[in-house]
């Protein structure tokens, strides 16, 4: 008689030891995962929300940046003003140069400069404006849009001997003007005939301007008296090339024909160069905050998975008792969680892709160009890749822990958590994912240096918060036994086995750290602009004082009661053409120093060191020095250029390349508002060149109006800048950037709140167990709630202090090291963070406690 077949513990679909084949494990894992997911998404809402929130932030930021980039590309000719742009400072092109440009294509020119506009009517107010004097052919590309609906040519035409003008609407408010009123620019009188609605080539200049736009005819400048030797005027020339003509070939021809012209020539590839620079920096800054939100959400992903696996411990135990190997358990839940992660990432990509469409109408007026909002694959793919990497990282940790828990432990009735140390073999794939995420962050960033520091900071935060949590637990364990029983039990809850202290501190702490860092960075930048302005700061900057006017100018101010002495400095403008003897075009200039080579910089000469700066290397030349040309250079810029004492730098001033040897390096204190320059030359060469003077004056409050009136009346060519107006303009730009940063920062807090909620859910079963035990021992609900309140209050305060410390260190590094500015700690931020963290932790902790207090002891004790 044949004995019956022996039963084995193998799962369906797998052959026993005596089987010839074993069916593939992955299909079985997929079937088991599909059965697990029949219960729906219960328990995974926080998982999906944390993942989708971070991915949406990154996708939205990158998509909008791409939309602006596409706008720059599509409108390159409008933004540049032509196919080829030629710029000269202080001087206009020679007739020969102009004729050569005209021979290459359609030609137009204009003058761009700051100027004082003075209304003719008595009740008008003189105002600093950004003047643009254009020829009739302007613009070569795009259209000037006027609110009245007319054309620019008709608005600027001469009528009854008076030229026309158009202004931005803000100019009418500042000058108390209406259409039809007249104003004077220098010695010329113009009539305001329309309001400027759109200027196609304004670009980033709209942000850099200290005054509203005033546009007048080119012919009117000749009557204004503003064109003087050394006057700070930008002469702009534009070419519209015939169809099929290369802008690069035209640029090469210009440089070949006039190699010593000293002009700046740009093509379509350089259109919006300044916009691109600031767009890249702003995108990276806000994008890294968005990535921080995703990393904070990743903690929530890990918590949600740990909570889910805790609820599946008996299922895992049964699978193991039936012979399921660790690999099958891991594959089953990995497939299930991978599917949910894909869903979360897809939700984030969809939301992030839609955000630019929703936001474009709200911020269209703030942007310097027209964004081309559309669905772009690359930004969405990058955001999705970040989401998948973060999901993989925070999924692996609890899964690798869960698969190694013995079946015998799982079958006990005790409360068991998914925790513990991982063996080094399991830590290797986690380390590989960490390295992949770090590499992806760095290589997709515009500035790899900043991204690298961000990665180090993120790793440091993920190490610091668990260490701080362990320190808190150690302090709680050694705090002794307070008289209050509730406080004693709360301290015990902070350091007992399985305490939620590390989870809560990491969850809420990361989100608070991002908010603290962004708030302190913005606050310090605002501090530099406003609160740190010295009490004896100058009241006015004066620009374009002619050499022939300086004596009379000083005499006029000295006659005004309350006006201080005039601080005057000779002023020229120059452009860096060589660094260390090499042309700028052949040098990889660091991104943080690109601003110095992409435009003209202020240049001066002096026999003595200027105020507001300190020599940190080298020595100043003797007062009577007249030897080879020397220069004193800003130390931060020299470090970025890789220059030191004895190296050379060449600057083109008035069309002449001037090479100078670096004799000293200075640390400039810009917050003193003293007149200072990156380049200070030794006397002997520049003092012979045509130049104007830049001056400042301090004044008592009652004297400011008198100074302003005297200068604008007697010196119409001099530009007057009120310090308060300049600070308000800069603060407005900073406010827009700060608002965007705070919005993304609050996304990090929202992610932290979701993570905190998940952490509380993950420890809910243990709190129910503790509450039931305390009830059985005679504790009232009020006493139990008090114990938990002490615990969560201590956690909230400790988390706030930790986040404040880590966030302050991060903000200090950005302000002091990356930006080179002075640092100020802002206590208001500390108080807000401490109160907010404590309130959040108490709210979520006690909300979970209420559920534990409603639990009936008998139902739980039956299962013990």
3D structure, described in words:
Strand 2 and strand 3 (127-134) form a beta hairpin. Helix 24 (781-818) packs antiparallel against helix 25. The chain has a six-stranded mixed barrel. It has a six-stranded mixed barrel with strand order 12-14-19-16-18-17. With 864 residues, it is α+β, with helices and mostly antiparallel strands. The protein has four domains: 32-81 and 275-446, no CATH class; 84-266, no CATH class; 466-536 and 723-864, no CATH class; 563-699, no CATH class. It has 26 helices and 21 strands. Helices cover 52% and strands 16% of the residues.
- Secondary structure class reads alpha+beta
Overall, the morphology is: elongated
Please report the number of helical segments: 26
* Number of DSSP-assigned strands: 21
Q: What strand order characterises the main sheet?
A: 2-3-8-5-7-6
Helix content: 40-55%
How far apart the termini lie comes to: 47 Å
Largest sheet: 6 strands, mixed, barrel
Strand-residue proportion = 15-25%
Low-confidence stretches: 1-24, 413-418
Cα gyration radius (Å): 34 Å
Chain-averaged pLDDT:
77
Count of distinct structural domains: 4
């Amino acid at each position: 008689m044949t004995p019956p077949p022996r039963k084995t513990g193998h799962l369906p679909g797998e052959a026993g030891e005596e089987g010839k084949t074993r069916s593939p494990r992955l299909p079985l894992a997929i079937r088991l995962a599909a059965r697990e997911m029949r219960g729906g998404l219960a328990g995974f809402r926080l998982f999906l929300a944390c993942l989708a929130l971070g991915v949406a932030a990154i996708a939205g930021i990158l998509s909008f940046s791409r939309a602006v980039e596409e706008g720059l590309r599509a409108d390159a000719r409008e933004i540049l003003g032509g196919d080829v742009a030629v710029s000269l400072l202080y001087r206009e092109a020679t007739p020969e140069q102009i004729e050569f440009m005209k021979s290459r294509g359609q030609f137009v020119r204009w003058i761009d400069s700051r100027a004082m506009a003075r209304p003719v009517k008595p009740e008008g107010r003189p105002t600093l404006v950004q003047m643009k004097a254009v020829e009739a052919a302007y613009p070569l590309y795009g259209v000037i849009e006027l609110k009245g609906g007319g054309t620019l040519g008709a608005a600027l035409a001469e009528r009854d001997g008076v030229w026309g003008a158009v202004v931005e609407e803000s100019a009418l408010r500042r000058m108390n003007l209406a259409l039809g009123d007249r104003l004077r620019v220098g010695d010329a009188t113009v009539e305001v005939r329309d309001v400027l609605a759109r200027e196609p080539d304004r670009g980033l200049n709209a942000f850099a301007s200290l005054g509203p736009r005033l546009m007048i005819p080119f012919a009117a400048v000749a009557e204004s008296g503003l064109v003087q030797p050394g006057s700070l005027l930008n002469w702009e020339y534009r070419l519209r090339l015939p169809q099929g003509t290369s802008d690069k070939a035209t640029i090469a021809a210009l440089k070949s024909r006039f190699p010593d012209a000293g002009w700046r020539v740009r093509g379509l590839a350089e259109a919006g160069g300044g916009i691109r620079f600031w767009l890249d920096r702003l995108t990276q800054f806000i994008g890294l905050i968005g990535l921080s939100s995703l990393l904070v959400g990743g903690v929530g992903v890990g918590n949600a998975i740990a909570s889910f696996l805790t609820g599946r411990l008996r299922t895992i135990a049964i699978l193991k008792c039936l012979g399921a190997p660790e690999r099958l358990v891991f594959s089953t839940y990995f497939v299930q969680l991978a599917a949910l992660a894909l869903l979360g990432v897809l939700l984030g990509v969809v939301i992030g892709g839609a955000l630019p469409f929703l936001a474009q109408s709200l911020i269209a007026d703030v942007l310097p160009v027209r964004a081309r909002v559309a669905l772009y694959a690359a930004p969405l793919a990058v955001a999705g890749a970040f989401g998948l990497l973060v999901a993989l990282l925070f999924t692996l940790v609890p899964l690798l822990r869960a698969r190694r828990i013995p079946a015998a432990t799982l079958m006990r009735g005790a409360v068991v958590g998914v925790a513990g140390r991982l063996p080094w073999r399991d830590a290797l794939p986690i380390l590989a994912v960490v390295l992949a995420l770090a590499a992806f962050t760095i290589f997709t960033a515009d500035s790899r240096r900043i991204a690298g520091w961000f990665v180090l900071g993120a790793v440091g935060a993920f190490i610091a918060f668990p260490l701080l949590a362990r320190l808190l637990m150690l302090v709680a364990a050694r705090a002794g036994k307070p008289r209050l029983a509730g406080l004693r039990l709360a301290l015990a809850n902070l350091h007992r086995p399985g305490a939620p202290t590390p989870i809560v501190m990491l969850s809420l702490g990361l989100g608070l750290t991002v908010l603290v860092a962004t708030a302190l960075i913005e606050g310090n930048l605002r501090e530099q602009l406003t609160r740190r302005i010295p009490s004896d700061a100058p009241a006015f900057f004066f620009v374009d004082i002619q050499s022939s006017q300086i004596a009379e100018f000083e005499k006029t101010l000295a006659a005004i009661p309350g006006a201080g002495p005039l601080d005057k400095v000779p002023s020229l403008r120059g452009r860096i053409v060589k660094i260390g003897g090499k042309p700028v075009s052949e040098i990889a200039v660091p991104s943080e120093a690109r601003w110095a080579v992409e435009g003209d910089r202020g240049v001066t000469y002096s026999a003595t060191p200027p105020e507001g700066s300190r020599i940190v290397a080298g020595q100043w030349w003797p007062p009577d020095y007249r030897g080879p040309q020397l220069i004193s250079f800003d130390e931060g810029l020299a470090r970025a250029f890789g220059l030191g004492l004895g190296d050379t730098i060449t600057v083109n001033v008035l069309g002449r390349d001037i090479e100078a040897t670096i004799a000293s390096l200075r640390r400039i204190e810009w917050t003193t508002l003293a007149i200072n320059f990156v380049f200070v030359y030794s006397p002997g060469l520049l003092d012979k060149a045509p130049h104007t003077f830049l001056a400042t004056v301090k004044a008592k409050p009652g004297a400011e109006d008198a100074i302003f009136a005297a200068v604008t009346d007697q010196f119409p060519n001099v530009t007057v800048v009120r310090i308060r107006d300049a600070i308000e303009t800069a603060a407005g730009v900073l406010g827009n950037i700060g608002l965007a940063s705070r919005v993304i920062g609050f996304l990090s807090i929202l992610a932290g709140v979701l993570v905190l909620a998940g952490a509380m859910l993950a420890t809910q079963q243990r709190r129910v167990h503790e509450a039931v035990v305390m009830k059985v021992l005679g504790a009232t609900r009020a006493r139990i709630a008090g114990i938990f309140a002490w615990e969560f209050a201590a956690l909230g305060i400790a988390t706030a202090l930790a986040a404040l410390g880590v966030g302050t260190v991060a903000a200090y590094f950005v302000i002091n090291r990356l930006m080179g500015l002075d640092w100020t700690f802002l206590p208001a931020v500390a108080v807000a963070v401490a109160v907010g963290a404590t309130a959040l932790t108490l709210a979520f902790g006690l909300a979970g406690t209420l559920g534990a207090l409603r639990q009936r002891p008998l139902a739980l004790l039956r299962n013990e």
